[in-house]
């Protein structure tokens, strides 16, 4: 691509983004004239948006009376359960789905991004109406070039800004957290609650009543009947500035390679620390289930929990770390009390706190994150994982070099099959069967393949 063509493409992209921004601003300004007739959102409709039909796992439904009562409800039963508590006081629902406890270690899918705004703590906004603050939030999002949210709820004192996404697996958690932090930063001027960014949060149900204010939880935006749902990739590309720049650069590079007659090939896969540790946590849970049917016997808990809690330091905010470590201990069948877990995992907590403060360590002349890090070979040695267990349990991170090479070979074969490349065994089988594609009889007759077929596939003996 020439520099002039690149400049034209860049100009066209900037103009398209400008038109989109103007369109969004116009939509938001039009919404300001409709504040007198907000759309109603029922509790059943609310959970249907968060957990659509066909979803798997369960959602946490909680009620706070004299004490906190919570249970996991299968997604297919959620609407019926919500119907029994419609209009009640202090009712909460999880935004994501889980396999067991409402903990990141049991997270099944992510279906929403969100930011909780405690604007009532801000003197400049404390006496504003929820609708006025909503419009100010929307303007801030436009100024930050962030796509419009799917909906905004007044929660009785603050606002909950939500972006619905098509369900993604827990493996996407690290990237989801980056989006969460960026959204919270963009709305910091409205007192975004950074303690409420983790995936295991519950928020108030639409139509319920907040006992602290006596206000009903209600929708403040949008006023139309439909709700936008994004694919997570699209939302992340739109929100994260680095991803936008990288995507544009990759698109230009692919175009340049195609123009030069080179195949674009498959994208390289680079694991961040967070994505690698999510894979480690998944492998630890698979190994525990495969080897001990879920319950760790005495003598094996310390090492497994230490590694699982280390993985969790890369997957949840510091404020949620202890809660998640307590859940991991219970998940593993440990009889430790919370105090015992705190004592045994104290170094894990300290290093996570240091990382949260932005501290670093010098190791062999390299500046590193203070959180623990382990090679896959070290984890294999600690837990005594055998090659047979690696294969039978379906491990992908806690594996030896031989299995890693084997998996890489299998991925390469799958990629070649997708491109239509015939492998060696299949090619030999075609030759033995006398396949025309393999034997190429037209070459012996000195003609092209198309001519050979047009003449009725003559043989070299005729």
UniProtKB/TrEMBL annotation:
Name the InterPro entries on file: Arc_rbn_hlx_hlx (IPR013321)
Q: Name one GO biological process term.
A: regulation of DNA-templated transcription
Name the UniProt record assigns to this protein: Uncharacterized protein
> What is the organism of origin for this protein?
Caenispirillum bisanense
